[in-house]
Amino acid sequence: MDHVGSLTTEKNVGDDDAEDAEDGEELIVIPGGQPNMQQLLQQAQKMQQDLARAQEELANTEVDGQAGGGLVKATVTGAGELRAVEIDPKAVDPEDTETLADLIVAAVQAANQNAQTLQQQKLGPLAQGLGGGSGIPGLPF
Questions:
Q1: pLDDT tens string 46-88
Q2: 55-90: buried (b, 16+ CB within 10 Å) or exposed (e) per residue?
Q3: Closest among 74, 69, 66, 58 to 116, alpha carbons compared
Q4: Residue 125, Cβ neighbours under 10 Å: how many?
Q5: What is the pLDDT of residue 112?
Q6: Which of 55, 76, 37 is nearest to 126 (CA)?
Q7: How far is residue 39's CA from residue 18's CA, in Å, rounded to a whole number?
Q8: What pLDDT, on a 0 to 100 scale, did the predictor assign at position 36?
């Protein structure tokens, strides 16, 4: 297919065409100023593969959270799945199980917050490539 011109992109603010191609990648433009649809589909497939790879990496990465100065520790995956809870015997008071329960909840919340931070680090650049962060269903950002 003949093309009228090509566009080599650099990330310029306000340059809509620059968002359609990755850094330094040439975007072929067909007559009428329309981008090559096959090339756009290939880019979308690559982004989908990158997203799947990042999600798999998150599912296999564990992060910790703690409460009570480390008396209670929780481990979750980067995807937010609870894997383990460790309780120091010093935190166990049979007369005050409510405090222990609060410490467990706080540790799990801290671990989940760390998992969300990891998600933003791993998936944020991919989400930006799709047109911005918060528009992707199922992602917490």
A1: 888 888 888 888 888 999 999 999 999 999 998 889 999 999 9
A2: beebeeeebbbbbbeebbbbbbbbebeeeeeebeee
A3: 58
A4: 12
A5: 94
A6: 55
A7: 14
A8: 79
With both helix axes pointing from N to C terminus, report the angle between 97-129 and 37-60 in degrees, rounded to the nearest 10. Answer: 160
Alpha carbon dihedral 38, 42, 47, 50, in 10-degree steps, equals 170
125: tokens are 């650049």
DSSP states along 66-133: EETTTTEEEEEETT--EEEEEE-GGG--TT-HHHHHHHHHHHHHHHHHHHHHHHHHHHHHHHHHTT-S
Q: CA of 114: how far to CAs of 47, 63, 66, in Å?
A: 25, 7, 11
pTM above 0.90, yes or no: no
Residue with tokens 């199980």: 97
